[in-house]
Amino acid sequence: xxxxxxxxxxxxxxxxxxxxxxxxxxxxxxxxxxxxxxxxxxxxxxxxxxxxxxxxxxxxxxxxxxxxxxxxxxxxxxxxxxxxxxxxxxxxxxxxxxxxxxxxxxxxxxxxxxxxxxxxxxxxxxxxxxxxxxxxxxxxxxxxxxxxxxxxxxxxxxxxxxxxxxxxxxxxxxxxxxxxxxxxxxxxxxxxxxxxxxxxxx
Length: 202
Fold this sequence. Notes:
Elements lengths: L1 H15 L9 H11 L6 H12 L16 E2 L4 E2 L4 E2 L7 E2 L9 H18 L9 H5 L52 H15 L1
Parallel strand pairs: 3-4
Antiparallel strand pairs: 1-2
Helix pairs in contact: 2-3
């Protein structure tokens, strides 16, 4: 009995254990984002947002918002829309946005940026800290950082627009709700919808 109880408690401890986040240095954030493909002319803005959103803490979880949702990780991405539970916009769990590896956080942040840019023209406006802190000159946030200029260290200079799904406008569809949720579309999706419309006309 005691052994069974120990096993149960160990399992609960594993489930409830906090994500292995870390507090990064501003130069570490900058160089990592650049290596992951962030456009060089935007890196200082992203570092600024990370500073004011989470103080560079990759495992940060914000207090409950007025709607009960929470914000997660380096960029404090909201779980109402973007990570599960309950959000599905980025197709990832919220715990994956709280770890040491910021690659999943960056990938999700790109989706948030792209969807917001399509709606309001400036993707950074998705973050409330952008206007008061990061809309002007942000060069000081990467001051003293030795950022590589080698093309080999950057996955793609156009990564901010790559692998970003096209937003679905209007009513709910078979693939999910409208913006701010976004989903990957390809020719097969459009072909399927085309066939459905043709069948309805018959």
